[in-house]
Design brief:
By secondary structure, the protein is an alpha/beta fold. It has one domain: FAD/NAD(P)-binding domain, CATH 3.50.50. A hairpin with a 2-residue loop joins β1 and β2. The longest helix has 26 residues. The structure holds flavin-adenine dinucleotide.
Length: about 200
Amino acid sequence: MLKLFEIFEASTLIIKRNRICWPYSINKVVKEYDFVIIGGGAAGFACAVKLSELSGGDARIAPVNSGPIGGTCVNVGCVPSKALIEAGKLAFESSRTRIQGIRMKTEISFEEVMSWIRRTVNDLRHEKYESLLEKLDGVELIKGRASFRSDSSLTVRQDGRDLEAKGRRYLISTGSRPAVPPIEGLEEAGYVTSDDV
Ligand SMILES: Cc1cc2nc3c(=O)[nH]c(=O)nc-3n(C[C@H](O)[C@H](O)[C@H](O)COP(=O)(O)OP(=O)(O)OC[C@H]3O[C@@H](n4cnc5c(N)ncnc54)[C@H](O)[C@@H]3O)c2cc1C
């Protein structure tokens, strides 16, 4: 009976300010939190950790993240770039010695270097984010892309259905993305950014 009522309620017309509209999805799930954090990068994650600590695990906190957890720094920013720089430095230094008469041959497999970088990224993402997330009281990660639906709620599209997340407070920490400078011929020539190198 209850199920029937829920289905009826979800498919009932909504009459709002003289406008009639259908609910945007009959598959909608509504969840309520004290804090909803949009973005699960370094900033959003640090905020979730601090809120959990300060509330003694009592606050219900939901970071919503559309990409890999950890965002730019661990996945495509600080970590892989510094690993690549370190590899380049080692290759450069090992190919020249300070002593005359000693020559060393350096063999470089870029493929292997890249797979070491990917392993390092995966290990650090697990150590600093994924495994920590399991230990944080009151924190529930929502995977998907969030957009505000009204002043007081947002929707997250995941697996073909909409989740409506309501927060008493929100933090927007959605980071940034690479900017492509307006250089003539660049589009035709092609380019890579730090996100897809
Ligand atoms: C190549 C490179 C090297 C860098 N090196 C360093 C360094 O050595 N030292 C340093 O201090 N900084 C470095 N940075 C900068 C650093 O990575 C960023 O300052 C930092 O990652 C920003 O964190 P953030 O949480 O604000 O954003 P991000 O880490 O970008 O996280 C934002 C998250 O929000 C998600 N998101 C966006 N929109 C939505 C939405 N609508 N719904 C749900 N989720 C959404 C994104 O998918 C992402 O996961 C580097 C950056 C780059 C690109």
